[in-house]
Design a protein that fits this description.
Blueprint lengths: L1 H14 L15 H19 L13 H20 L8 H5 L18 H10 L15 H15 L4
Helix pairs in contact: 3-6, 5-6
Bound molecules: heme C.
């Protein structure tokens, strides 16, 4: 009788997960590593999708119209990390302890290189820079924000 009771108790405990064989458990997940792998996957997909020739089909009525659009994209999509001045101190950078580069620095590697800036924006980075092309930023907005960075943010007001 006691054995039957003990069996019931064991069955109940096992039922709520108390008797799992530790050898069957999934290995502990390193969250940082998993996130970086997911981001690297996004970068790879975006790189595959990226088509620089699309920019040849984009026209702007005036340079000003492109800058204006770039400013809108910047304030809604980018400045939370990059900061309104591009120096890398947006509220998310501070709150989440993100290393966001100062893209107005004199020695910024992409200075003056619009094609490279567009590609960086579209493709993103396996750190915290999102793959903007994958999450729906249009080529037009990629173009506008690239020019906003290089023509305006980097030269100052
Ligand atoms: C979630 C935060 C975040 C957002 C939002 C964000 N960025 Fe970034 N960005 C970063 C970080 C972090 C880096 C540095 C990447 C690295 O080198 O590790 C970066 C790098 C860059 C670079 C330089 C590329 C490089 O490899 O150094 C450009 C250009 C850029 N971002 C443009 C933009 C634009 C334009 C937007 C908005 C359309 C934007 N970013 C939105 C975090 C962000």
């Amino acid at each position: 009788m006691n054995r039957i009771l003990a069996g019931i108790v064991v069955a109940l405990l096992c039922g709520i997960g108390g008797c799992q064989d530790s050898r069957d458990e999934a290995p502990p997940v390193d969250r940082e590593e998993a996130l970086r792998a997911a981001r690297a996957d996004s970068v790879a997909r975006a790189t595959e999708m990226y088509d620089a020739a699309v920019f040849d089909t984009i026209t702007w009525e005036t340079e000003n119209a492109r800058w204006e659009r770039g400013g809108v994209v910047w304030s809604f999509t980018c400045q939370r990390c990059h900061g309104s001045d591009g120096k890398g101190h947006g509220p998310d950078a501070t709150n989440f302890d993100m290393a966001v580069p100062d893209i107005t620095a004199a020695d910024w590697p992409y200075a003056g290189d619009i094609p490279a800036i567009r590609e960086r924006i579209f493709v993103g980075h396996d750190s915290e820079m999102p793959s903007m092309g994958l999450i729906g930023l249009t080529y037009r907005d990629v173009d506008a924000s690239a020019h906003y960075i290089d023509d305006l943010l980097r030269t100052g007001p």
